[in-house]
Amino acid sequence: MTILEDAYKDELIEKNPLKLVAVPTGDDVIVKQPFTFEEIYQILDNAPEIIKAFFAIGFFTGMRTGEIIGLKWSDINFEKKIIEVRRSIRQGRETTPKTKSSIRDIDLLDVLEPYLLDHRNISSKESVYLFETTRGEPYKKTDNISSHFWRKILKGQNIPYRNMYQMRHTFASTMISKGENILWVSKMLGHKDSSMTLDVYAQYMPQKDFTHGLGFLR
Known about the structure:
Elements: H1 2-9, H2 37-46, H3 49-61, H4 65-69, E1 76-77, E2 82-85, E3 88-90, E4 93-95, E5 104-107, H5 113-122, H6 143-156, H7 166-177, H8 182-189, H9 194-201
Antiparallel strand pairs: 1-2, 2-5, 3-4
Helix pairs in contact: 2-3, 3-5, 3-7, 8-9
């Protein structure tokens, strides 16, 4: 139910087909479970070098996982400090993001830049996509990243399991709870307007003034 509702909020599907189904109660309800700063860095510090930047992008931009595996090096502008989101890979197919708001330029935060630079250094100079398989092809889906890396890291660090989509929730809830401008957060997430962002994350509104990205610094 929650996964489909998240997909609807992110404009990946036209409507939630389970809206007419009775909502479960008690322990059956799945809630957003953002990671703590400690957990974020446990994951990043223990992730293999070849995939560390994938998780850093998830935590420090709020991009959808399909958008992350669709990233090309030509989308990263280190000089202007922006990431151009121009495509997504879903169900094995590369497509443009579904909505106009999902086609966007987002800020490359200072906390993320070192992870991208390190990943550039270990990547093949012929690489087109940031994240490629051993055959030099982009990942067709994120299931392999989850099973080969994500699950193992969480288990090894005794971090309660949450799916990779929670990286997006972590970014959004952290920024909003620290008082970041809701319009900026909405743009980073690729929502069509701030009302959608507030609808999803209103419970985290707000606490104190906040400067871009500082909440993620150690």
